[in-house]
């Protein structure tokens, strides 16, 4: 029962060591820690190589900058594990996650992934702890309740078709979760906060509202047929989401600058038109 961890790394010299250490200190050993240096121009590669000298489980792939999806796919190709653990170079796990996740997999063969609760880390402070609710294919089409805090069954990832290179701008985990769930796999939940999701200025997790909307619309168009098939359920849920966005627009309009509100309105109109 091998576990292979995969960490794409781009200019993360300040955090990559912490991410790797959180895997080295797991209560159940991770067999491979595959770090993909994706064309870093800082000292990230040197930091990883220094750790590699001390820990034989660390494998380094050094490549030109091809984006996070290509980096993760390169790591999966080298992975020998039955299970895949993926995270970004600025995130980190608590040391019991893998042990508890493996026990969950033993409970049901239908599990394609095990996730846990997470906490956001902003300027070094932990805020907004979150324990996810049950995730289904239908609910995942609407919201990404899992993010990156997952131990995935490699078999499920291969059947789903790896990471979509078109999603390198973000939400690639969400996209993969949708495809895994569509295959009929289930997601188990550990009701504990065992993952630290770090918001760092300049990192991929630190995106603007406008950029986030673009990525969500990209997903929406990709799964347009699925949304239509689930018309009744999604109409109710989208109505709730539209109401939330409309309240958000009102708040934005009260500010001096609200250019992004026009973009939000246009996206809402696109969604509404599909259900007419």
TrEMBL record:
UniProt-listed Pfam families: Glycos_transf_2
Domain Glycosyltransferase 2-like: 4-127
Cross-referenced InterPro entries: Glyco_trans_2-like (IPR001173), Glycosyltransf_2 (IPR050834), Nucleotide-diphossugar_trans (IPR029044)
Keyword field contains Lyase: no
Keywords noted in UniProt: Transferase
GO molecular function, one term: transferase activity
Entries under PANTHER family matching the protein: GLYCOSYLTRANSFERASE, GLYCOSYLTRANSFERASE 2-LIKE DOMAIN-CONTAINING PROTEIN
Name this protein carries in UniProt: Family 2 glycosyl transferase
Organism this protein belongs to: Nonlabens dokdonensis
């Amino acid at each position: 029962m091998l576990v292979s961890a995969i960490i794409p790394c781009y200019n993360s010299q300040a955090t990559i060591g912490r991410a790797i250490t959180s895997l080295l200190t797991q209560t159940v050993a991770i067999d491979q820690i595959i770090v993909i240096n994706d064309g870093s121009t800082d000292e990230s590669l040197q930091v990883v190589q220094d750790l590699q000298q001390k820990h034989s489980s660390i494998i380094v792939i050094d490549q030109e900058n091809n984006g996070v999806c290509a980096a993760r796919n390169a790591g999966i190709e080298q992975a020998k594990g039955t299970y895949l653990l993926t995270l970004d170079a600025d995130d980190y796990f608590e040391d019991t996650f893998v042990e508890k996740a493996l026990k969950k997999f033993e409970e049901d063969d239908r599990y394609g992934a095990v996730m846990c609760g997470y906490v956001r880390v902003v300027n070094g402070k932990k805020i907004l702890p979150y324990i996810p609710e049950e995730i289904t294919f239908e609910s995942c089409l609407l919201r990404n309740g899992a993010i990156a805090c997952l131990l995935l069954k490699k078999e499920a990832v291969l059947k789903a078709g790896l990471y979509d290179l078109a999603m390198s701008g973000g939400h690639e985990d969400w996209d993969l979760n949708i495809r895994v769930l569509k295959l009929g796999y289930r997601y188990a939940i550990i009701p504990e906060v065992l993952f630290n999701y770090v918001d760092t200025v300049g990192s991929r997790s630190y995106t603007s509202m406008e950029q986030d909307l673009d990525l969500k619309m990209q997903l929406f168009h990709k799964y347009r047929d699925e949304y239509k098939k689930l018309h009744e359920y999604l109409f109710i849920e989208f109505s709730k989401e539209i109401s939330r966005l409309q309240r958000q627009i009102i708040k934005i309009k009260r500010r001096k600058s609200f250019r992004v509100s026009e973009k939000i309105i246009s996206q809402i109109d696109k969604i509404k038109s599909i259900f007419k």
